[in-house]
Amino acid sequence: KQEVTQIPAALSVPEGENLVLNCSFTDSAIYNLQWFRQDPGKGLTSLLLIQSSQREQTSGRLNASLDKSSGRSTLYIAASQPGDSATYLCAVGAGNMLTFGGGTRLMVKP
Amino acid sequence: GAGVSQSPSNKVTEKGKDVELRCDPISGHTALYWYRQSLGQGLEFLIYFQGNSAPDKSGLPSDRFSAERTGGSVSTLTIQRTQQEDSAVYLCASSLSGSGYEQYFGPGTRLTVT
């Protein structure tokens, strides 16, 4: 059974810092990995999708990498802003579903 | 274009009652998913529909849960004889096609069973 772990569970940083969120998964037989953002009381917003054949994807200040063989992905956020405060969820796709990690709750202080 | 929509946004029901939750996927998306997000269990897969194929019901927690997708578009998740442990946020997602495509999520329905 696929298990997805996100570290750290919570993170508080001052505005402007670069930061890295980590995601690990136990079964490397995946077809993709998706990073999401969730604001309190809201649904999930897709940030980046990495197919299993890819190593990384970039969107604006966000960069996500994937090392399928070691079961790891990282989400790099450059020059963090207070508006980046949210919960970030990693999900791996296999079979007919996404399996989610527990999330990293990020607070960026002005 | 319009995203995934869900209704109602909030539902409070008494234990033992039946509830129906609705999902409208993005137009043209053939795959539709239901997930549940609860404090104790995180985000869990419930059921998957793809075109006219038989749905993948492997995530449904009990036979009190069922789902339909009519005409390949709108889906309804039904919970019979609700229990307090059913309290959660129910999220619907859709994707252009089946496995491997990016999933887009709706805002969710918050279900509270009293």
Characterization of this structure:
The complex is a heterodimer of chains A (110) and B (114). Chain A has strands at 4-7, 10-14, 19-25, 32-38, 44-51, 56-59, 62-67, 72-77, 86-94, 97-100, 104-109. Chain A is built from no helices and eleven strands. In chain A, the strands form two sheets. In chain A, strands 2, 4, 5, 9, 10 and 11 form a six-stranded mixed sheet that branches. By secondary structure, chain A is an all-beta fold. Chain B has 114 residues and is mostly beta strands. Helix content of chain B is 0%, strand content 48%. Chain B has strands spanning 5-7, 10-13, 19-24, 31-38, 42-50, 65-69, 75-79, 88-95, 104-105, 109-113. The N and C termini of chain B lie far apart (37 Å). The mean pLDDT of chain B is 94. At the A-B interface, strand 4, strand 5, strand 9 and strand 10 of A face strand 5 and strand 9 of B.
What are its keywords?
heterodimer, A: 110 residues, five-stranded antiparallel beta sheet, 0% helix, globular, B: 114 residues, mainly beta, six-stranded mixed beta sheet
